[in-house]
Design goal:
Subcellular location (chain A): Cell membrane
Organism (chain A): Micromonospora ureilytica
Structural class of chain B: alpha/beta
Pfam family, one (chain A): BPD_transp_1
Radius of gyration of chain B: 22 Å
Largest interface: A-B, 39 and 51 residues
Largest sheet of chain A: 2 strands, antiparallel
Oligomer: heterodimer
Shape of chain A: flat
Radius of gyration of chain A: 27 Å
Distance between the termini of chain A: 32 Å
Number of strands of chain A: 2
Shape of chain B: globular
Domain ABC transmembrane type-1 (chain A): 88-304
Membrane topology (chain A): Multi-pass membrane protein
Largest sheet of chain B: 6 strands, mixed
Number of helices of chain A: 14
Order of helices and strands of chain A: HHEEHHHHHHHHHHHH
Helix content of chain A: over 70%
Number of helices of chain B: 19
Number of strands of chain B: 16
Strand content of chain A: under 5%
Chain lengths: 313, 446
């Protein structure tokens, strides 16, 4: 800044300030112009609905007596509501198992496909990714049929060995039934992200490592994985957010799973039931916000513990 | 990321018949979204939601016979799916159709929210004589009438004649005999005798009422006060009975109306199917009773607790109601009165066992009385079973928060199926749950 004033010495100080102010203003306007369209959409479709939902969550509507302002009563109710708490506990448990499983599978597949460069690798990549291209709803319906003991293939397969097919839609195994569906659907997608990250690694590093005597395993664990750590963290956050909001698969399988999956199976389903079948938009909003709080805390905690790594956030 | 998928699902679920995303979505008051084709132009159009299997025919019949009004029909899903959408439209204040198909047990739920029109003012007297007093009672709240009855659901015991013959069983007349027969079939290595489905709470409620339960007492003149009695001895007995059957492995625990259950019925995995008069229509629609199954089904009256004092109950049965959002309620009422009231539509309904009509002209039609029902291999099912059951049905008072009650019931029946509670415990929990909800909703619970 000093050089600027030196070069245009004849100008008086107030004049300079004025020009500088104009430039600033123009830059500001340009900036806002670029951000504007996004800002409008962001406000209209994210902030406004959120604010409205927050507003709704502070009221209570009764069949008898109408609507009244209750401040945080709905939140107090949510955190003492066994339906909400058991649903939240389920998704937390589910996250703890499903996320590591998905990431390990995705990472292993990405590393394997990165070291193999044949046509077979390209074909495999497509096939592994394919489940993600199938709409969740259709995937869930398909698995519902595969799990079916009445007419699914399991009964026949287990029948060959004289055994009874496990009931993946029953209350004992539904956890694993859903785990399988989610992993099947998402591992391929995460694999592609990790694979793309691996492609961005400079191959000369591998050469250097090989010259230093590193084997394939060492290259994978010492070079590749540390270098794609940001991508790993990215997919971890994605899957954490997604799993805590678990909705589609259980909602679809609900019709096939005999009483195993209730309307309060996950917090998201519970909010949906409250809002759309019981017309309790107020409590539904409160549950959604409470869930949002849990997601925020979990993601924040995760990022806090991984903050030393290079992170995308 | 996943949120996008969630939105897509919600949109899809909202789009109508759940898994098979159908053509028209919001039904609403937009006449361009009809499932049926309206041929007469420049005539006022009344929108309608409904899910009877033969609605297309019924609507076409109505439109053919009327030059002053045309019906635009949308199927937004069966049962709960439709109610969810209607509920959302009520809350939004827009998006509801003019006329809606509603099961009798849901009418008070929508009425208490002020979502339905009292149709007594629109030509009620002209059609009053077409239905029995009991039929009108089921669609009324107090003195006001909130729907035009279409069909009822007298409950009976559908059974597999081939299985009964094979294990040498005669249709049980009491629930005690039902259990004995179930045991006998099981001991002989036969199939399950029936099914305890968590997702049919309205049937469970009907079976409790048969034993003498009266879950709700609600006087619309004093809307604030409600009697909730879900854990009396009769209610407990029925849940204990079915829970016991399931625990002993005598009956299955599949959700009904699912592919799993229907395939079970087709494969002869169940000897009996306790259901309403409209059930055969849904079964044939799903392919049951055709091909190899032809002629294997028969029907007998519902088993009784006390054969000296038989009680008949009803499951489902529906009506056409006019919504508060109808722009021309009088015209909408005309449609509600006229739909499924002409001879051709009614005849199609009862010959195919899609509906059990409540229209007296149909009920008294000798053709219906003496009909040899193909599904039941020529058995005169109406004369022998369904008509006596419908005649003896006395009607019940339904809850003004039917959706919550039935959801809560479904949850407790699921617990019974899992084996985590007994029937009695489930009844106590249900009482606690529903009474708490009623209080939260501003009622005083007695």
């Amino acid at each position: 800044m000093t050089s600027l004033t030196e070069k245009r010495a004849p100008r008086t100080q107030p004049e300079t300030r004025k020009i500088r102010g104009k430039v600033h203003l123009r830059e500001h306007l340009m900036g806002w112009l670029f951000v504007g369209p996004f800002g409008v959409v962001f406000l209209a479709f994210l902030i406004a609905p959120l604010a409205y939902a927050l507003y709704l969550s502070l009221f209570q509507k009764k069949l008898i007596g109408g609507t009244s302002f209750v401040l945080f009563d709905n939140y107090v109710k949510a955190f003492t509501d066994p339906s909400f708490l058991s649903g939240a506990w389920f998704v937390i448990r589910f996250s703890l198992v499903s996320i590591p499983l998905q990431i390990i599978i995705a990472l292993a597949l990405a590393l394997i496909l990165d070291s193999v460069t044949t046509v077979f690798a390209r074909f495999s990549r497509l096939m592994i990714f394919l489940p993600y291209a199938i709409p969740t709803v259709i995937g869930a319906v398909m698995w519902g049929f595969l799990y079916s003991r009445g007419f699914g293939p399991l009964t026949d397969i287990f029948g060959l060995f004289g055994a009874t097919a496990p009931d993946f839609l029953g209350s004992d195994l539904i956890f694993y039934g859903l785990l399988n569906v989610v992993t099947w659907q998402w591992a391929g997608y995460y694999m592609i992200i990790l694979y793309a990250a691996l492609q961005g690694v400079d191959p000369t590093l591998y050469e250097a490592a090989r010259m230093d005597g590193a084997g394939r395993w060492q290259i994978a664990t010492r070079i590749k994985i540390p270098l794609i750590a940001p991508a790993l963290i990215l997919i971890l956050v994605f899957s954490l957010i997604g799993t805590l909001q678990f909705f589609n698969e259980p909602q679809i399988l609900r019709y096939l799973a005999a009483g195993t999956i209730g309307s309060d199976f996950t917090p998201n389903m519970y909010a949906y039931q409250q809002a759309f079948s019981l017309a309790n938009f107020n409590y539904g909003s409160a549950i959604s916000f409470a869930l949002g709080g849990i997601v925020f805390i979990c993601v924040y905690a995760f990022l806090f513990f991984t903050r030393k790594r290079r992170s995308f956030l | 990321m996943k949120r996008r998928r969630i939105l897509a699902t919600v949109a899809m679920l909202a789009a109508g018949s759940g898994l098979v995303a159908c053509s028209s979505d919001d039904g609403g008051s937009d006449a361009s979204n009809c499932t049926n084709t309206i041929t007469k132009q420049n005539v006022p159009v009344v929108t309608m939601w409904g899910w009877y299997p033969n609605t297309q025919l019924v609507v076409d019949n109505f439109n053919k016979q009327h030059d002053d009004v045309q019906v635009c029909w949308t199927n937004v899903g069966q049962g709960g799916d439709e109610y969810d959408k209607f509920q959302t439209a009520i809350s939004a204040g827009t998006g509801a159709p003019d006329v809606i198909m509603v099961e009798a047990d849901r009418i008070p739920t929508f009425q208490i929210q002020g979502a339905l029109v009292d149709i007594k003012q629109y030509g009620f007297d002209a059609v009053k004589a077409n239905y029995s007093e009991g039929a009108w009672k089921d669609v009324s709240v107090g003195d006001q009438v909130y729907g035009v009855p279409v069909d009822g659901g007298p409950v009976a015991m559908i059974y597999r004649k081939d299985i009964f013959d094979k294990y040498k069983i005669t249709p049980p007349k009491t629930w005690a005999e039902y259990e004995q027969a179930a045991q006998k079939v099981k001991d002989a290595g036969g199939p399950l005798f029936g099914d305890l489905g968590a997702n049919v709470p309205a049937l469970t409620m009907a079976l409790q009422i048969q034993k003498g339960a009266s879950p709700f007492t609600h006087d619309p003149a004093q809307p604030k006060a409600i009697g909730v009695k879900l854990n009396d001895q009769a209610s407990k007995d029925v849940l204990d009975y079915w829970g016991g059957l399931a625990k002993k492995g005598l009956v299955g625990t599949q959700n009904q109306f699912t592919p799993e259950y229907i395939s079970g019925v087709i494969n002869g995995n169940y000897a009996t199917y306790i259901s309403a008069a409209w059930a055969p229509g849904y079964l044939t629609g799903a392919g049951v009773g055709k091909g190899q199954d032809t002629g294997k089904f028969a029907v007998a009256p519902l088993p009784q607790w006390d054969p000296a004092n038989p009680v008949q109950v009803n499951w489902g049965g529906s009506a056409f109601s006019v919504t508060k959002q109808a722009k021309k309620p009088e015209l909408a009422a005309k449609v509600a009165y006229g739909l499924y009231a002409d001879k051709e539509s009614l005849t199609d309904g009862w010959t195919n066992q899609i509906i059990f009509p409540l229209n007296l002209t149909a009920l008294k039609d000798p053709a219906l009385v003496d009909l040899k029902v193909a599904f039941f291999n020529g058995q005169q099912a109406n004369k022998e079973v369904y008509l006596p059951a419908a005649d003896a049905y006395k009607g019940v008072a339904y809850a003004p928060f039917g959706q919550y009650y039935l959801d809560a019931m479904e949850k407790q029946v699921s617990e019974i199926i899992k084996g985590s509670v007994t029937g009695s415990q489930a009844a106590d929990r249900l009482q606690e749950d529903v009474a708490k909800y009623a209080k939260e909703q501003g009622f005083t619970v007695q």
